[in-house]
Write a structure and sequence with these properties.
heterodimer, A: 449 residues, Aconitase, domain 3, 2 domains, five-stranded parallel sheet, 16 helices, 32% helix, 16% strand, globular, B: 186 residues, Aconitase, domain 4, seven-stranded mixed sheet, 6 helices, 24% helix
């Protein structure tokens, strides 16, 4: 019987010839990621060793990644102390993939992992963050776990007692209309599936529109797969994956592309013709409360946010800048921009994107998650409304249960900043979705591919 | 060991919640710098002020039940969402749970019961059996769904810390006592 990508990856990582949805396996972990919640992981890790008479050493320091992104720079003494504790642990254990609060290495974990070449197709990636699903964009099986579960991974190097999930095949045909983006596509998909429609399942993305999508867009799709409850989202790796890994992540050497079998068994197949897709908005207070923009056009907005692990990439900033260039955001509206990494920030600076955003009146912040989850900067006032390119609009999400958050694409966010109301983007804007990083040696990539 | 004829627990339904209660509602992000299980209980449902107050003042006795709809615990992987509820020794009976939350709950030993048709009102007396929840006040019985079988060994060990300790010391094979389900991890 054929296998899905998730089944193939879990079979390999568990040393089996094949597995089927429902089997219980214990896959070896290729990459274990945490952010500031590593402080809790450390506590649990040390507790595991308590009374065992064994020295508390992580199973493989080269396979652990820790990225500070949730509260950077620290907003309180408590956070700073947690970060210090993590830094000390990193040094003591020799953890290699550590990204501190530095502009030459920092950013949001779900951007740092792909751009640093830490994620390869076919890998098993676990992270103490629900948006770890992001890394399926490169063909990995990546899923979120809690801190105690991570402590267990640090000790044993395997994910204990994992049930192989069923897979939903999402086939996206057609071509996305101009300025309609991966964000609109995934919001539409979540609206169809509902917030629990993919609980305990994997979303495997197929179709012409996915093949034509850059890795940046695929990262958006997989990032938000968890908002339909999915354990993981996966895009079958292809030539675009190799291009990204080579050009952007600077990965060298042989890369094996794990792809699903033609006769793989799916629990459900949904088809979407994205040629007909329009701008989508997730309305308060659930991510599956998705409506076409036309239904809520004109809703007044107090704060616009562009950024996060979902939509803080170079192409996201560039499309916003091209809409805002030479114009001013509406009076009474504040706009915050959080690039997904310092590398993206630096590139956007060099290309004049940041100048366009600042010129329009946007406040460009340092890369980080704080605003999205209401822990650090960008909180909303009572009764205020935010329109954001982030991934969640739950009650209280941006730090205030008396506020509302709507979710949208970067193009819609930028267009709405100009009017102070939920607005559709103007036509004829240059949307350079291939804006990414300088590609030093495309020729070498073509040969490698 | 309990059988299906004798209740494992008798408890009182103290609060009823809707579908899709997120981890942001259970434990708001702004308290995430607080990680210790001894400190997280004060912020349980912080944005549902009445519920938070009833919990922290002890008006809701330990061992009480909260009944929720589908997809309880959706959203973040923050383990505080499980530790904050365990700190009040609550039983969470929901029509469904989001995956990461349920996993965290099992890992920490928070009592969670999947009961797809559960219904009742605050004040109702509930009896929890192996395979059903009986609402003694309304007289209705609701079947429960077993927790994922893959997690049974963790539940039996009393949580993931204890289970990992056993695995580390070689006391257990994969997924259960050595020998029951085959040899060591490949």
């Amino acid at each position: 019987m054929g296998m899905t990508i998730a089944e193939k990856i879990l079979a390999r990582a568990s040393g089996r010839a094949s597995v089927t949805a429902g089997d219980v396996v214990e896959p070896r972990v290729d990459l274990a990621m945490s952010h500031e919640n590593a402080a809790l992981v450390i506590n649990q890790f040390l507790e595991i060793y308590e009374g065992t008479g064994r020295e508390a050493r992580v199973w493989d320091p080269a396979k652990i990644a820790i990225i500070f992104d949730h509260r950077v720079p620290a907003e309180s003494a408590k956070t700073a102390t947690n970060q210090k504790k993590i830094r000390d642990f990193v040094a003591a254990q020799g953890i290699g993939k550590f990204h501190d609060i530095r502009a030459d290495q920092g950013g949001i974990c779900h951007q740092i992992l792909p751009e640093s070449g830490y994620v390869l197709p076919g890998a098993v990636v676990v992270g103490t963050d629900s948006h770890t699903t992001t890394h399926g964009a490169l063909g990995a099986f990546a899923f979120g776990i809690g801190a105690t579960e991570m402590a267990s991974v640090w000790a044993l190097g395997i994910a204990l007692n994992i049930e192989v999930p069923e897979t939903i095949k999402v086939i996206v045909n057609g071509t996305l209309p101009e300025l309609v983006s991966a964000k609109d596509l995934i919001l539409h998909t979540i609206g169809r599936l509902t917030a629990e429609g993919a609980n305990y399942k994997v979303l495997e993305f197929h179709g012409e529109a996915i093949r034509n999508m850059t890795t940046s867009g695929r990262l958006v799709l997989c990032n938000m797969a968890v908002e339909a409850g999915a354990t993981a989202g996966i895009v079958p790796p292809d030539a675009e994956t190799l291009r990204y890994l080579h050009d952007v992540a600077h990965v060298r050497g042989t890369i094996t592309l794990v792809r699903p079998d033609a006769d793989a068994v799916y629990s459900q197949t949904i088809e979407i013709d994205c040629s007909q897709l329009t701008y989508q908005i997730a309305c308060p207070h659930t991510v599956d409360n998705v409506k076409p923009l036309s239904e809520i056009e004109g809703t007044a907005i107090d704060q616009i946010v562009i950024g996060s692990c979902t939509n803080g990439r170079a192409d996201d900033l560039a499309v916003a800048a091209s809409i805002l260039s030479g114009r001013k955001i509406a009076r009474g509206v504040r706009m915050l921009v959080f690039p997904a990494s310092w590398r993206i920030y630096d590139e956007a600076l060099k290309r004049g994107v940041i100048a366009d955003l600042i010129g329009a009146g946007a406040v460009v912040m340092n890369p980080g998650c704080g605003c999205c989850l209401g822990v650090h900067q960008g909180a909303l006032g009572d009764g205020e409304v935010a329109l954001s390119t982030t991934n969640r609009n739950f009650l209280g999400r941006m730090g205030n249960p008396k506020a509302k958050v709507y979710l949208c694409s970067p193009a819609v966010a930028a267009a709405s900043a100009l009017t102070g109301r939920i607005s559709r983007p103007p036509q004829g804007v240059k949307n350079d979705e291939h804006f990414e990083f300088p590609s030093h040696d495309n020729q070498a990539c073509l040969e490698a591919c | 060991m309990s059988t299906s004829s004798s209740p494992r627990t008798t408890t009182r339904l103290v609060w009823k919640l809707a579908d899709d209660i997120s981890t942001d509602v259970i434990y708001p992000g702004r308290y995430m710098a607080t990680v210790l299980p001894s400190e997280t209980p004060q912020y349980a449902f912080a944005d549902l002020a009445a519920l938070n107050k009833a919990l922290v003042t002890g008006e809701i006795p330990r061992g009480s039940a909260i009944v929720a709809g589908k997809n309880f615990g959706c959203g973040s992987s923050r383990e505080q969402a499980a530790s904050t509820l365990k700190g009040h020794d609550l039983v969470i009976i929901a029509r469904g749970f989001a995956r990461i939350f349920l996993q965290n709950a099992i890992n920490l030993g928070l009592r969670t019961i999947v009961c797809p048709e559960i219904d009742g009102e605050a004040g109702d007396e509930l009896e929890i059996f192996e395979d059903r929840v009986v609402n003694r006040t309304s007289g209705n019985s609701f079947p429960t769904v077993p927790l994922p079988r893959s997690r049974q060994a963790i539940i039996d060990a009393g949580g993931l810390i204890a289970y990992t300790k056993q695995r580390l010391m070689g006391l257990m094979g994969p997924m259960g006592p050595m020998g029951l389900m085959g040899g060591p991890t490949p």
